[in-house]
Design goal:
about 475 residues; 6-stranded parallel sheet; binds uridine-5'-diphosphate-xylopyranose; NAD; alpha/beta; 14 strands; Rossmann fold; oxidoreductase; binds adenosine-5'-diphosphate; EC 1.1.1.22; 2 domains
Length: about 475
């Protein structure tokens, strides 16, 4: 029997849970939406004028709904009990220990959320996995819930992966390409799918809501991200050929994109993809293939990551070579540290590995990024895997949020790592004057006017191009 959904609880107030639930609250005034998190600090931030993530348009929507039908709280148990539908949007990092190290997803947080649900739920619930999880995770969640639940309580577990991209999350949520819901292929499963679908139908056309079994849904999410990442590695691999041959990657991408079978999106050559999803999901996929004894398939996807690392290394090698094979005590200015524009998120950003290579070469780095916070940047660069002593990092890496002159004064090279629009608007004539000569620009995002920069006097190098420097 379908009943109107009145109350939703979302466990995890992060990059996925926060924006998704804000839009649900905004579009469904008749539904009470509680977003819960263990971190008091994060919840406090959501309840303050400075919400904890920068996402264009999000703050306006949060302020419209907060206190009405959108609530951020640490009262996890109370909100679970009241909910008809519970979203699990906790983090699923790659395991840093034990079996599957560096490959398998760490389900610690998913498991703890499931255990809390089974402990406190006194009425039947629909549980929705929103975090990207391995294939068959819904089955594991079901088993965890089954073995602990209270009498007369039933759980239907659905997979409803989120496809939003950071920086465009609001538009992606308001106008999704599709909503994907996976569930059990039986009466109860279909009923649960219908219930969740009814929430989305408040603003998404029914034809865009596609349903399938749980495993297909889980695998679709991994496959979608893997194929997006693969496109970037494919273009980046072609960019290496362009630099060596004199072809121009922008012209090649454009020509390829006109083929409607290929399409023109996601063909931007870059210094390498970053973000919390692509690398993690490909690692999950590789781990899955290995467990299924599909060695060739695992190798195929692994190559996407190999090319991504190669792209960063290639970029840095070119920089070192242009700077006369030494960066020792040279000031280098990094334009951008976030993994893409319009976000302050730095997870897996290409800039991290690039800074690592620069620091190994003895460079002094000044980062210019409008949204990244100093503490976050230092945290990334002191990740044990990079093997950089934190004191050294703090001594050698500075952050400027907006002061372009300060960031570029005395610098040997500007290195574009993030495609922030504001970088296009700078007065490069003025910047040239205050830099060391020869002044270099390395455009890892193809956003600058290279001919104009060369005419100012810069030596310019760009991904996927051979430029006519004087
Ligand atoms: C991605 C997927 O797009 C989204 O559907 C999924 O839900 C989560 O993972 P996100 O990581 O937020 O989203 O951003 P995305 O726009 O996909 O960019 C990922 C990385 O690829 C960024 O570093 C971006 O700069 C890079 N990129 C993207 C390119 O280098 N070239 C391109 O053409 C596109
Ligand atoms: C291809 C290109 O499509 C065309 O643009 C180019 O000019 C020549 O090469 P063709 O080889 O004639 O054309 O046929 P195509 O339709 O591309 O199919 C190639 C192979 O891929 C076939 O064996 C086809 O069955 C297979 N295929 C195609 C798939 O297995 N799956 C698909 O989704 C599409
Ligand atoms: P994502 O990008 O997937 O949204 P984030 O790391 O931004 O990931 O957010 C996940 C959030 O989930 C974090 O704020 C974390 O504190 C929260 N979280 C993790 N485990 C639990 C749990 N068992 N109960 C409540 N919140 C949790």
């Amino acid at each position: 029997l379908s009943k109107p959904i009145k109350n939703i609880c979302c466990i995890g107030a992060g990059y996925v849970g926060g924006p998704t639930c804000s839009i649900i609250a905004y579009k469904c005034p008749h539904i009470q939406v509680n977003v819960v998190d263990l971190s008091q600090e994060r919840i406090n931030a959501w309840n303050s004028p400075n919400i904890p993530i920068y996402e264009p348009g999000l703050n306006e929507i949060v302020q419209k709904c907060i206190g009405k039908n959108l609530h951020f709280t640490t009262k996890v148990e109370e909100c679970i009990e009241k909910a008809d539908i519970i979203f699990i949007s906790v983090n699923t990092p790659t395991k840093t220990y034990g079996v599957g190290l560096g490959r398998a997803p760490d389900l610690t947080y998913v498991e703890s959320a499931a255990r809390t649900i089974s402990k406190v739920a006194k009425t039947s619930k629909i549980i929705v996995e929103k975090s990207t999880v391995p294939v068959k995770a819904a089955e594991s969640i079901t088993n965890m819930l089954k073995s602990n639940h209270q009498p007369n309580v039933e759980f239907q577990v659905l997979s409803n992966p989120e496809f939003l991209a950071e920086g465009t999350a609001i538009n992606d949520l308001l106008k999704p390409d599709r909503i994907l819901i996976g569930g059990d292929n039986n009466e109860k499963g279909k009923w649960a799918i219908g219930q969740l679908s009814s929430v989305y139908e408040n603003w998404v056309e029914k034809s865009l809501i596609i349903t399938t079994n749980t495993w297909s849904s889980e695998l679709s999410k991994l496959a979608a991200n893997a194929m997006l990442a693969q496109r970037i590695s494919s273009v980046n691999s072609i960019s290496a050929i362009c630099e060596a041959s004199g072809a121009d990657i922008e012209h090649v991408s454009r020509a390829i994109g006109f083929d409607t079978r290929i399409g023109n999106k996601f063909l931007q050559a870059s210094v390498g993809f970053g973000g919390s999803c692509f690398q993690k999901d490909i690692n999950n996929l590789i781990y899955l293939c290995e467990n299924l004894n599909l060695k060739e398939v695992a190798e195929y996807w692994h190559q996407v990551l190999v090319i991504n690392d190669y792209q960063k290394k290639r970029f840095v090698d070119k920089i070192v070579k242009c700077l006369f094979n030494t960066l020792n005590n040279k000031k280098i200015t990094l334009l951008g540290f976030a993994f893409k524009k319009n976000t302050g998120d730095t997870r897996e950003s290409a800039a991290i590995q690039i800074c690592k290579y620069f620091l190994d070469e003895g460079a002094l780095i000044t980062v210019l990024d409008p949204k990244v916070e100093y503490e976050q940047m230092i945290l990334e660069l002191s990740n044990p895997q990079l093997n950089l002593p934190i004191e050294m990092v703090k001594r050698k890496v500075q952050l400027c949020s907006t002061d372009v002159i300060e960031a570029c004064k005395g610098s040997h090279a500007l290195v574009v790592c993030t495609e922030w629009d504001i970088f296009k608007t700078y007065d490069y004539k003025g910047i040239y004057e205050i830099m060391q000569k020869p002044a270099h620009i390395f455009d890892g995002r193809l956003i600058l006017d290279h001919e104009q920069l060369i005419s100012i006097g810069f030596h310019v190098e760009a991904v996927g191009k051979k430029l006519n420097n004087q």
